Amino acid sequence: MSTFAKPENALKRAEELINVGQKQDALQALHDLITSKRYRAWQKTHEKMMFKYTELCVDMRRGRFAKDGLIQYRIICQQVNVNSLEEVIKHFMDLSTKRAELARTQAEALEEALDVDDLEADKRPEDLMLSYVSGEKGKECSDRELVTPWFKLLWETYRTVLEILRNNSKLMVLYADTAHRAFQFCKQYKRTTEFRRLCEIIRNHLANLNKYRDQRDRPDLNAPESLHFYLDTRFEQLKVATELELWQEAFRSVEDIYGLTSMVKKMPKSSLMAIYYAKLTEIFWISSSHLYHAYAWFNLFQLQKSFNKNLNQKDLQLIASSFLLAALSAPPYDHLKTASHLELEHEKERNLRMYNLIGFNIDAKIETRDMLSRSSLLADLVSKGVMTYVTQEVKDLYNLLENEFLPLDLASKVEPLLTKIAKLGGEISSASSVPDVQLSQYIPALEKVATLRLLQQVSQVYQTMKVETLSKMVPFFDFSAVERISVDAVKHNFIAMKVDHMKGAIIFGDLGFESDILQDHLSVLAINLNKSRSLIYPSQSKASKLSAMLPRVADIVDKEHKKLLARKSIIEKRKEEQERHLLEMEREEETKRIKLKKKTVEAEQKRLATEFEERKHQRILREIEEREREEAQALLNDVGKRIKKKGKKPIIEGVTKQSLMELAMQEQVRERQEMEKKMQKLIKTMDHFERAKREEAAPLIEAAFQRCLAEDKLRHERDQQVELSRERHEGDLKEKYRLARLMEHKMELEERVVRSRMAEFDRMRAEREERIGQILKARKEERDLKRKMFYLKTEKESLNRLLEEEETRKREEAEKRKKEEAEKRAKLDEIPERQRKREQELEERERLRKEAILRGTPPPLNGPTRPSELPAVGVSAPAAAAAAPAAAGGGSGGGKYVPSFRRGGAAETRAAQPDRWGSGKQEEREVAPLSDKWRPSSFGGGASGGGGKSWSSSRFSR
């Protein structure tokens, strides 16, 4: 067993094992930590760990591990965070459901894959041997291995979750949802065995819940929410049982619902009770309990009529007709008249059980046979007014079977009614509990009841009747079926009849058969023989009284002695009882004192609670008064506005809310009366208008009627000319016979004309096809010519467009070149003017410097010391510094391009050399402003001569 310092370490270790494919070790590690007592304090990590644990259990199909882990996790988080348990269980069920659905979609043959009688049974040895012998390696085997294990896991998941949540009041919603999902699983895949087992599990849970009432988290069945969940689960169980046609389980579900309602002494909602009685009708009909089926319909009809307000007249008519037919389908005789005493006792217990299920609480001491019977049900049916809702056909059938006496015509009149009733029925959209009502299901039972009524009425009129006559009178069955029906009726003393097959006759008589006289002849014989023996051998006379009393004296003495001893023991017992009574009284006094103290504490608590309720009540009253005051103010404003609209002066000061409400009601009544007066006036106007229209239309209608009479008279006279019509018909027949001889010549001429026309048509069609071919060929050649012309035209246009673009480009380049030369010429013309101004300035500075030298004053420090050191006009300092080395090279090399790094180095060397008037830094400071000043014209020429000009031109061209 692995030990971890923290749960996080176990989770990390499990993830590492999963990544390397060791899922079994990861599951075992998580299982050891969950079941360990060291980690019972709940943390958020526990929830993550349970998610991973359930995923592993589902992947490896380990249902037992999952159950153990969930039980331990319930212990951990039951009192701390029960919502975490709910989330883990939901995750577990979702995983199982998804994997089962995935396996189902992967299998193509689901029916073969799920062909297992019990999901909890292991594989039998004979199945293994059969699979090896038969070589089942195909699709059926793969489907069985793929789908069935996952469905077993899903079923085990439902069982595990229900077992864990059965005593948890905080997770009642999840318990009910799990039960519903399990029911749907059984319904979807037709799992009847699992459904029975699931019903038994839920039934045991409820029984244990009532048996062990001292559990801490036990759900309270008296709470409305718990009762709602349990009843909802039982009703879902009842629905699924009827859909799976498990009628025995459906009946047990009905008993569960009745037991649950009896336990909590509270009836469910009317919608649920409607479903309850609807399912009862199905169960009783399947079990051939026609009387109970009719009583279930009785309760269902009352519920639908009272609580379902969405029923229309047609739906109510169908339900009432079905109820009446169910009552008529019950046999008209009692099965218990000829039953034995033991059978009567068993039947009485069964009837009490059934009566409770259908909602009739009957005392067991009362004879229930007379209370719930076919006759009493039909009487209640008439008294409740059900006959006003049924269809006319059903009503006529009821009158024929119950009220009419027609021994010869009963079957012939019932048969067409049954044919019409069989066609009635349909869906009831507004009543969810009874989605479909079909009256055709009652036809066989009604035919049997009609046959019994016919036999009963015939037996009252006739003593003998031929078998053929009776067979003709009963069109529903043959005589063998009628004979079987009559045997049951005779057995239950409904009719008295015999069938003589040798003579082919039926003999009717009263109910007093000779078998009734001979049924107790042995007991009568025994009584008579006993009387004869007593007369032949009388008993001997007794001895005298004295001799009889003497032997009894000793016995009397012994009895008296025993009485004295018994009296002594009784006195001792009474003393002991008195002492015990005193002790009990002391104990009761102590108990009363404790109860009194407890009552005092409870009274104090009640007083505090009462004071709190009184304060709460006073606060509510204050709120109600404030609300009424606001409503009165709003009503006051409303009434004032209404009165102002009518031009009256509102007198609404100092009035109460009640008076304001009365005033508002009076205004509403007055407005309603005015509206009624207007409507009466409008009605009177419309009445006069309609009367005037009818007075104007009367003569026109009379004239039209006379005209129609005249036309009908003429038509009648024309139709009466029979002779003329007969003569015309004979002439037409002669003409027909005369022309019939020419029919062969007409057919020959017709064939000859058709052949000539067909030949002409073929010739014209060939000429047309040839002409169309020539036209198509000419059109194709024309299209090819047009296509070539269009291509040549397009090529010519594109070539012209290219030539025009080339000429335009050359013209623009020439204009641009001319413009650039003009700008260059303008710049070159500006250079001599600038140079002249600069020379004048330098000459002025030189003159000032010489004058200063002659006067003996120091020269100015803002200019060069001699003209030879001046930079060239129009050239910046770096350019001048770069031009000096180039000039020093000699020749006409002044226009040669000098790299930037060389120009910079030369300028720095020249600026760093001091002269006799100052250092290099001062000269650099003086030259820099000049270079900044003439920097825009640095593209111009040099200082003088061809050297500077060639440099500027080379710089411009570059």
Write the layout of secondary structure elements.
Blueprint lengths: L6 H13 L3 H13 L8 H17 L2 H15 L4 H25 L3 H4 L11 H10 L4 H27 L6 H17 L3 H20 L12 H20 L3 H18 L5 H17 L3 H18 L5 H17 L11 H17 L10 H4 L2 H10 L8 H11 L7 H13 L2 E3 L8 E3 L4 H19 L2 E3 H7 L5 H13 L5 E4 L4 E4 L5 H5 L2 H16 L8 H5 L3 H93 L11 H63 L2 H19 L2 H113 L21 H12 L11 H13 L7 H14 L11 H13 L1
Antiparallel strand pairs: 1-2, 3-5, 4-5
Overall morphology: extended
Secondary-structure class: mainly alpha
Tell me roughly what share of residues is in helical segments.
over 70%
C-alpha end-to-end distance = 88 Å
Quote the average pLDDT: 76
**Percentage beta strand:** under 5%
Query: Which sheet architecture does the biggest sheet show?
Result: 3 strands, antiparallel
**DSSP, total strands:** 5
Q: What features would you describe in this structure?
A:
This protein is mainly alpha-helical. The chain has 34 helices and five strands. The chain has helices at 7-19, 23-35, 44-60, 63-77, 82-106, 110-113, 125-134, 139-165, 172-188, 192-211, 224-243, 247-264, 270-286, 290-307, 313-329, 341-357, 368-371, 374-383, 392-402, 410-422, 443-461, 467-473, 479-491, 514-518, 521-536, 545-549, 553-645, 657-719, 722-740, 743-855, 877-888, 900-912, 920-933, 945-957; strands spanning 425-427, 436-438, 464-466, 497-500, 505-508. A hairpin with an 8-residue loop joins strand 1 (425-427) and strand 2 (436-438). It is extended.
